[in-house]
Amino acid sequence: MIDILSGYTFLIVAFGTVILAFASGVIGTVSVIKGQSLIGDAIGHATFPGIVIAFMLVGIRDTFSLALGALILGIVAFFIIQLITEQSKITLDSALALVLSSFFGLGMALMSFVQGNPNFDGTQGLSDYIFGQAAYMLRSDVYLIIAASILSLLIFALFYQQIKIYIFDPIYSRSIGISNPLMNFMILAITITLIAVGLKAVGAILIVNLLIAPAVIGQLWSNRFFHVLLIAGTTGAAAAFIGTYISTAGDDIATGPAIILVLSAFVVLSLIFSRKGLLRRSIQKRKIGERT
Amino acid sequence: MMVEVLFVLIVTAMATSLLGVFLVLRGMAMVTDAISHTILLGIVLAFFITNDIRSPWLIIAASLVGVLTVYIIELVSQTRLIRQDAAIGFVFTALFAIAIILVSKYAGDVHLDLDVVLMGEVIFAPFNRIEILGFSIPNALWQLSIILLINIAFVLLFYKELKITSFDPKFAYIAGFSAAFIHYALMTLVSVTAVAAFDAVGSILVINFFVAPALTAYLLVKRMGSMIMLSLFFAVLNSVAGYYTSFYFDLSVAGTTSFIALITFMIVFLFNSNGWVSSRIQKARQKKQFNRAMILMLLNEQSHESLTQEEIMSHFNLTPKQFNRHIDHLLLNEYIEKQNKKYRLTPRGVEFTHYTRIKYELPEMI
Fold first, then answer.
1. CA quadruple A186, A187, A190, A195: dihedral positive or negative?
2. CA distance A239 to chain B (A)
């Protein structure tokens, strides 16, 4: 066990995933409370063509340019979703499904083009970004994750009061001069950044879980915003650590899915045993029943 | 043989978009997205047992997992502890994660290619053939044609029920329709269709085939019957366009078709009669007309009968360019006249303000 914990690959991967999961847990809480949690899913899928386009332009799998490509396409997808929902009767739900699948389709079309073209080498690594291949994470990947996570948390801390007011009382926030659309964009820009840097670790499909599940756990245990954030960040980080350990210890278990499964187990446990959970609810119901 | 690929694509698109109409109307697009991911778990589990990628058990098991996904999502959101969108997001990723772990752990021993399951490739459809009445046709075409017929039968049989439960679930409940039965029947068919379509279009893109044509049609028409017809039309259109584009540039057929579906949607979104472009034009036109009417109304007020350019400009906060555009138009139509650098209403202009007052129910000037 000690071997694994002090192994170089494990340290690199664990460090990256833990920090990523902490930041995603904190930022994801905002989207979950606002009822926009599936935007993360749509953007996660929409980053895939960004990866391929960046690869086509740069020609090598360079960590930073691929993340930048993912970021740009994520933002484009976000604006298209906004345009569709604001300018037509189409609901957010449908717009998300449309945009996520079409962008993913574009990614696949471009990918087939790249694979069939002898001018591009090393295309195999590109599909790692769909499912995540944390085991192949490089130092540069981890540095990028750390930089992006710390920057995200810093921005979040800096605008903490404004974000809090924006989430819970949008009308008041507008009346004291906070621009709600700007706030919304800022939160989503941070979310997209975290998705873009985290693709290699957990993959485009599963990354939304890192944004949603910790927030759900936090909300189950507390009603105070700050506590929810702390619980979300910590459980996310803990799940990332355990998940990475499981995947390193067991053979042929991918890291991303392992983290997601640990997080999901946390959600189920919280759903049953937390302060607002089902167990307590049924006990209270019985008590009320006995009293009457 | 290549034209068979097109047939498979068209039949898939029609079978999916027919159900897609109801998914869009019921706001269940993302639930369908969740299903299209989790059926992978059913496919993997059934594959481990039967060891045959063409086994009908795959379809049954995967459909069961699809319906189970809907059930779990509803169960979780009914506790009111987790919002529905968050429930969708974490339930499907959890089930999908199990599937990926199973595949990556055991796929070495069994031949199951994750990429093919997820991405699908309709190009390979003709290689897997079946004899029907002496004709050799692709297996996928045969399966999907049957499913298309089942879907059509379902929609025809339960047209009234589908309509009422989609638009007014409360009334449907009072009137004695079993909304739950229709709901689960629909979700079962969605799962079966998604599974059958997976090796043609892949489990991620199948959601596009469900919703994109239906959404495009939804922008154009208001009646459900015409929405169904139109979405079938867009399904065929996207498939044909996607097929030929992908062949010309040598791209993935399903991927290209999905992206072309977005392009079709955006064209309709921007250019339909109350779409983005025409509503922009209409707004600009209304603003122009309103500005001109306001200038005339100002000139009709007492003590404002004749005004200089500066006075009008400062009153409405106009730039010289805007002012000239409005005034040129008004002069040309003889609503106003210019005397000694001052503007005043002509009799025609006075008449116009009179009718404007009536139109907006404003009090008449004394």
1. negative
2. 13
